Amino acid sequence: MKNIILSIEGMTCSACSNGLEKYLNKQNGIISASVNLVMANATINYDEKILDVEKLEKFVKQAGFVSRGIYKEFKIEKKSKLEKYVFIIFTLLAIFIMYVSMGHMMNLPVPTIFNPHTNPQIYTITLFVGAVLFLIYGGDILKNGYKNLIHMIPNMDTLVTIGVLSSFLYSVYGMYKVSQGDDSYTMNLYFESAAIVIYFIKLGRYLDGISKDKTKEAIQKLVEITPNKAILEIDGQEKEVTLDEIKKGNILISKPGEKIAVDGVIIDGKAHLDESFITGESKPAEKTIDDKVVAGSLNYDGYIKYKAERIGRDSTVSEIVRLVIEASNTKAPIAKIADKISGWFVSAVIIIAIITLLGYLLLGAEFSVALEVFVTILVVACPCSLGLATPLAIVVSEGLCATNGILVKKSEILENTAKVDTIVFDKTGTLTFGKLKISKINKYTNKTEEEILAIIASLENMSTHPISQAFNEYVAEKNIEIHKTKDFENIAGHGVCGMIDNQKYYVGNRKLMEKYNIQNNNIEDEEKLAKEGNSIVYLADEKEVIAIIGVNDIVRDDAHKVIETLNEKNIQTIMLTGDNEPTAKKIASEIGITKVIANVLPSEKVESIKKLKEENRYVMMCGDGINDSPALATANIGVSMKSGTDIAMDSSDVILTRNDLNSILKLITISEKTIKNIKQNLFWAFLYNALMIPIAMGIFNKIGLRINPMIASFAMVISSLTVIFNTLRLKKIVK
User: Using CA atoms, how far apart are residues 369 and 712, in angstroms rounded to an integer?
Assistant: First the structure.
């Protein structure tokens, strides 16, 4: 099973993307396919034993579209000057055609040579030439419309193609009659309608393209974070190279004012780096030997050498961009509903238009009148706005999340976060900083405190739990030498154990002592330390407890305010921790959490989440450690607090790269506003079609409310722009 993203050309509306998606999903060997109209690409999950990229691209071609190859990097294609100039020329030509065809109706001064009453043949030929030029200009629309009709996936272009060609061919017949001397056909030509409909479609797409690019700007900013060039050290000499020339293991140099080129580790020097785009921390972080650096970080004041570790598409920034792109390519439930409607909408419109045409003819209307109504229905019903309603909002919101350090892996999370009524927080590293400090040591042995801490640090040095940092930092500060450890074992939810100097030691919580039947007569000491807000660490050999150490953690500055805001939103907050109950309750009371579930193993955390879900609660779990992974996966939405370099390894639904609890509030706000925006877009899109199709059918002719193909095409553009501008308002919801 393999996953790729193909760049697709030729999609113009949701019927296109929906049709291609359906076609791909029908093919043998394709497990799933999701097509994104805004990003113009298709994410395909396929069996590589059956298919390859060449065959996938063939499927795209068979569906009537063009594959531009595998997605390599995100890039906003700037409109060429030629495209702009061509558009200006055809704008002037459209004005000329409108003036010639309608000027005499409005008593405007029309040159005699173009007057239909005095020179009907020249008038007719002029409009014919103008229409032909527009047919050439809109050749891509007609070609697309024809292809999609042939492949039985009619789309917006199909509606336009049928309407425009019907008008044009009937007008060609009229031109022939005029050339034969029948001037009565002069006033029944629709060359101008064919031309102006194409012009307005092109105008809409030109503006639509500009607006879509604006929705991608947040993602583009991420791409542009990394520099284009770097300084490579070769045999003691400096050489400027492009990022493509950098290989893993190369030694790179960064000077004050320069950006870090790739993810790596410092091997020489020290500097203060601005990593705010990842961490959200405005204060520059001090970096020295053995510290990791992230591509795009700005070097304020130091000269450092660093070894390249993650380059190209493996870098943190590339990983973030990839996650955002893939998320925007997934379908939110509300988007799937819109896609289904768009899928049959075009076919329904064609049927309505044909029935209306036949109805007019049966009621005795002239063919020219019936044809005008037929074309008007086809043009006015183009589902552009319906197709843009959801994907535009999703892309804007994904970019907005990314710029706020929130990586959402699936777009459905943006919809479902608004449903959350319960948020479960891990304690250490989530509600607290996870930077523990040793506060007190109770020892029951002849060993010195230094010897006790050396043993603990030797074992904890091989652990990733936040509590290990307290001991590692302490022995480093005191220059205490740690021991070589053998047979190390991590006992999930309990602690660790290992052999030091042929003696087995255990480091962990009280449950670890109980698990291995180690004598423990020090529970009172533990309870006393716990009441003071300490997390408890036991050190024991195979027989008895050697020491109990109390370690303190610092509550995050924003924790109280975030919990208070969540409570105001009627979202229940729960602390779920493996720590002892007195310590957990003390911290919970400080920040406003009333429900605490303590002394739980990772497996028990999962059961707690399941119980909440059984109570019909929509649960978000927020944690930071490996021990939280099962609970994160079990919750409706899993949110992890991670550093930028851990992104690729994370398995949760949402990653908060800035380790900022306020990001949870931002995510909820973005979710609520996004769903509201999508519903507004769908409402206006449906309302537009509900109103305009009956008007186009002529139902309201008796009260003077009627439209022609030109007005219909203009109305279609206005409908799409309404959705676009409403969506762009999302950019302002989070500062």
Answer: 15
